[in-house]
Design brief:
The chain is an alpha+beta fold. About 40% of the residues lie in helices and about 20% in strands. It is built from eleven helices and 19 strands. The strands form six sheets. It has a nine-stranded mixed β-sheet, with helices on both faces. A two-stranded antiparallel sheet has the order 1-2. It has a two-stranded parallel sheet with strand order 3-7. Strand 16, helix 10 and strand 17 form a beta-alpha-beta unit. Helix 1 packs antiparallel against helix 2, helix 2 crosses helix 6 and helix 5 packs across helix 6.
Length: about 375
């Protein structure tokens, strides 16, 4: 079967042949300025048609996620406020803020939300993010580094994997921001992490690295940052700590899952831990970890080299899956039993998850139909409240 993008590919090849100053070889690429507009018009059209052919309605779902994420971000941060007209002191401004879900003026708000560049682009413009995935493979095809058949396989796999990964991460971030939207907080803190240096890595390989760390220190922040750390860290810490208004409690939130490279010098007297070797490994879709305490130090640490600090709750986002198959129930229970959350596990059903509506709570595992309605997250907040 021949797709529309293959016809556009033929057009692009014809354009290249008609402009001999364009050089695209295995070891060289030259596209003069005067022919770039014509070249990239067809190049980008191919990418657009491939994304449409391979992802179809999934891109539409991503646009819905994008709209909801941007609305949630606007509700808990000042990011994007510069787009409001300077005259926006009247009715239109109040209506705009109401539609965005803007909190009252005395509510804590972040200055901005900072995510990984790829995820930020996906949540701002899903189409553009998917087009970017095809940039290198399409050039490899034009340079004849891969065959058309191999290109099709590569494109299908890369788009499917990247979309699934970004959509899952994006929905998870929407969940986090929506939780912040419906809870009242006074302040936020970031946890300082000790990045393992090159010298320490060498010392570690020689068994010369002592690797003893004090409890991580937190400091006030007005920026919500959730970016996976690519470096080795001495201790795995929560992404952010939130001071709740209604009580003296602090919540620590950890997205992703990591093991530390050092040992904590002093254990918490109130937070229990379990041997890291008994915790299952997460290759993908790691759960959100929620820690609660009246002491911010007790919600800052997730793991050192040997131990994992038990969370109060874990959240599993299941945005595009059949939640209620026996296989998925089994996987969820394995995660629950391994991480041993004190309050329990919340499986949050996204807008496109399938399955029956019968299974709601079992052995500390609760399933909630969330979709894109922040108010349905209230049971999670209630369980985390004193």
């Amino acid at each position: 079967m021949k797709y529309n993008w293959e016809d556009t590919l033929d057009e692009l090849k014809a354009y290249i042949n008609a402009n001999p100053e364009i050089v695209i070889k295995r070891d060289a690429v030259t596209i003069p300025e005067d022919v770039k507009p014509g070249f990239y018009r067809l190049f980008d059209k191919i990418r657009e048609e491939i994304v449409e052919a391979e992802l179809g309605e999934l891109i539409g779902r991503a646009r819905v996620l994008s709209d909801n994420y941007i609305a949630a971000r606007g509700a808990i941060s000042r990011q994007g406020e510069e787009r409001v007209s300077p005259k926006g002191k009247g009715i239109l401004s109040r209506l705009f803020n109401r539609l965005r879900g803007k909190p009252k003026d005395n509510s804590f708000r972040f200055d901005e939300v900072v995510l990984d560049d790829n995820l930020e682009e996906f949540l701002s413009c899903p189409d553009k993010a998917m087009f970017r995935v095809l940039f290198e493979p399409l050039f490899n095809l034009l340079q004849e580094k891969v065959t058309l058949s191999a290109f099709k396989d590569i494109v299908k796999e890369k788009l499917s994997f990247t979309f699934r990964q970004l959509y899952h991460s994006g929905y998870e971030k929407w969940i986090i921001l929506s939780l912040l939207k419906i809870m009242s907080i006074d302040a936020a803190y970031e946890v300082e992490s000790h990045i393992i240096t090159g010298r320490e890595i060498i010392e570690q390989s020689r068994n010369e690295f002592e690797g003893v760390e004090k409890y991580p220190v937190s400091k006030n922040t007005n920026i919500f940052k959730s970016i996976p750390k690519m470096e080795l860290v001495a201790l795995s810490t929560t992404d952010i700590i939130l001071k709740m208004t209604a009580s003296e409690n602090y919540l620590g939130i950890k997205s992703g899952f990591a093991q530390g490279e050092a040992y904590i010098a002093q254990e918490s007297k109130t937070r229990k831990n379990i041997p890291f070797e008994s915790v299952i490994s997460f290759q993908k879709d790691a759960p959100l970890l929620i820690y609660k305490s009246n002491n911010p130090a007790d919600v800052s640490l997730v793991a050192d080299k040997n131990r994992f600090w038990r969370p109060d709750a874990i959240i599993l986002c299941r945005e595009n899956a059949d939640l209620y198959t026996s296989e998925d129930r089994g996987k969820t229970k394995i995660i629950h039993d391994s991480l041993k959350p004190i309050i329990g596990t919340f499986v949050l059903k996204g807008p496109f998850a399938g399955g029956s509506e019968e299974y709601k709570q079992e052995d500390g595992i609760s399933v909630l139909d969330i979709g894109f309605n922040p108010l349905t997250l209230k049971p999670v907040i209630e369980r985390l409240s004193p």
